[in-house]
Amino acid sequence: MPAAIRLRRAVLASAVASAAAVLGVSPQPAHAAEPAFQLPFACDQNWTGSVRGNHNPPLSVDWTRGGPSTTVNQPVVASASGTVSLVSSTGNYGNRIVIDHGGGWQTLYAHLAGFNVGQGAHVEAGDRIGTVGSTGNSTGPHLHYEQRLGGTVVRSVLNGSAFVDGSTLRSRNCPAAPQPPAPDTGMTGFAPADFNGDGRTDLAAVDAATGKMFLYPGTGLGTFGERTLIGTNWDSLTNVTPGDFNGDGKADIAAVGKSDGNLYVYPGTGTGAFGAPWSAGTGWNSLHHFSAGDFNGDGKADIAAVGIGDGNLYVFPGTGTGWFAAPINAGNGWNNLDRFTGGDFNGDGKADIAAVGIGDGNLYVFPGTGTGWFAAPVGAGSGWNIMRDLVGGDFNADGRTDVAAVQAPRGAAGTMYLYPGTGQNTFGTRSTIGTDW
């Protein structure tokens, strides 16, 4: 930081402390050193900032990258490490995030198109937190950015220098040398279906630490019997999704190869095992948040998935032969959601999608229309962001779709709970299924 900026902030702090002593009140604790703030944009991108004379609050910066089309939907990243203290969609700021960096320092990112983090998350400098948009009281795509000290907006210091109005800066918010990820624990890749042919909903799941797939046979009472090993090397696959994709009346599994991005269909035998897979197409690694169901009402199992790049929901109609037709674009903004699962949650005989809002942690049910599209979401409860994974299925054999959920942080084992479905987009009192999931 230039000496003039440091001196001015030191004089201000001294004046505040003196005034507090005169008034007979205790001065506030000294603020910690200013974090090494970087541009809130991806490494090596150039962005132009504007500090308008009538900007509210003063000293906040509006950032653009050329015209509207080259600004909107660009990734927004954390300026420095910290904890997300606010994720909100109300007021003139529109979609906004506040990060607490400690010592009284905060940054605010406003008018976002969508969120990639939830409240309470820890982020490092350069972690993606959202995308540039034009929500709230905004007249065009831009990022409204503030640096705050003790709740007051101060002149932004970026790349070690005080920001000058109208400057174009290159982001140095570049990733450090990658660190090996912590090993995953617990069960993942949940797939609910009647895999053993006894008419009850079972659960297939992958041990994240070993890559082994186990079958947990359903009892029809909201619990599972003793698990059996049904496969290995499933850690080479992602987006495990169940359904009768080849139309033989037996539950199959589709999953995406991590190394090649192909979609593989594993035909179920109806005895809790699977035959040799076939490749049902390439490029599926550009999608995530997979759900399965008869979304278009033709009696065949489809796959719905969200585009990683654009946040759109795509429905791939099943052909009943283990392949899928060209996708239906079922709408945008689905990158604001996480923990997707399918099921008939409202009891109308059509496949719905349930997912958790990244910003608010609420569970939303998107009722299926039977045409490959979905109606406006219905709120189904709050506090679901404490769940690591959700999976929908009729686990208690009452004809309604329930939700089984693992309460644990990402990458950790936890307790699984059953939330019995009411058939009205709500769930009854939960019960414990088991631990160490």
Notes on the structure:
The protein has 437 residues and is mainly β. The protein is 5% helix and 37% strand. The protein contains 2 helices and 33 strands. The protein has helices at residues 3-22, 68-71; strands spanning 46-50, 61-64, 75-77, 82-88, 95-102, 105-115, 122-123, 128-132, 143-149, 152-154, 157-158, 161-162, 168-170, 187-193, 202-207, 213-216, 228-231, 237-243, 252-257, 263-266, 278-279, 287-293, 302-307, 313-316, 328-329, 337-343, 352-357, 363-366, 378-379, 387-393, 402-407, 415-419, 431-434. The strands form 7 sheets. Strands 1, 2, 3, 4, 5, 6, 7, 8, 9, 10 and 13 form an 11-stranded antiparallel sheet that branches. A hairpin with an 8-residue loop joins strand 26 (337-343) and strand 27. The radius of gyration is 25 Å and the shape is elongated. The model is unreliable at 1-31 (pLDDT under 50).
Summarize the structure.
The chain has 437 residues and is mostly beta strands. The protein has helices at residues 3-22, 68-71; strands at residues 46-50, 61-64, 75-77, 82-88, 95-102, 105-115, 122-123, 128-132, 143-149, 152-154, 157-158, 161-162, 168-170, 187-193, 202-207, 213-216, 228-231, 237-243, 252-257, 263-266, 278-279, 287-293, 302-307, 313-316, 328-329, 337-343, 352-357, 363-366, 378-379, 387-393, 402-407, 415-419, 431-434.
Total DSSP E strands: 33
Number of helices: 2
Overall pLDDT metric: 89
Helix content: under 10%
Q: Which structural category fits the helices and strands?
A: mainly beta
The Rg value, from CA coordinates, equals: 25 Å
Span of the ends, CA to CA: 49 Å
Shape: elongated
Low-confidence stretches: 1-31
Estimate the strand proportion.
35-45%
Largest sheet: 11 strands, antiparallel
